[in-house]
Every structure is written in C-alpha cells, then in structure tokens.
Amino acid sequence: MEKQDISSARRRLKCANRKTRKRALKIIQQYKREKRSRVLASASAD
C-alpha cells in the first residue's frame, strides 16, 4: 500500500506510469476539495 499524503502524491505526478499519475491526481484533488470545504466552513462560522 502506498502513502496517501499530499507530498507523496505530488512526487508521483512525475512518474511515467499512467495509473500511478491518475492515483496521485485523485489524492491531490481530494486534498483540495477538503481544503476548500474547511475554508468555507470556517468562513461561515464567523
């Protein structure tokens, strides 16, 4: 099983393997989605 953190995903984007790149992109998109929802949640709490 590979690491699911953002730095490992960014490193895997440079890989030649198509499946690996797709998996890394999925992790990064999920991270951005969660980050955006956290910002919106904190903005609406104020």
Describe it for me?
It is a single chain. The chain has 46 residues and is mainly alpha-helical. It is 76% helix and 0% strand. The chain has two helices and no strands. It is elongated. It starts with 5 loop residues before the first helix and ends with a helix. 4% of the residues are buried. The model has no long low-confidence stretch (mean pLDDT 92).
Question: What's the layout of helices and strands?
Answer:
Layout: H1 6-12, H2 18-45
Helix pairs in contact: 1-2
Alpha carbon gap, first and last residue: 40 Å
| Annotation field: number of helices | 2
Question: Which regions contain 5 or more consecutive residues with pLDDT less than 50?
Answer: none
Rounded average pLDDT? 92
Sheet of most strands: none
Share in helix:
over 70%
Radius of gyration: 13 Å
What's the order of the H and E elements?
A: HH
- Structural class per helix/strand content? mainly alpha
The total count of strands amounts to 0
Which range does the strand content fall in? Answer: under 5%
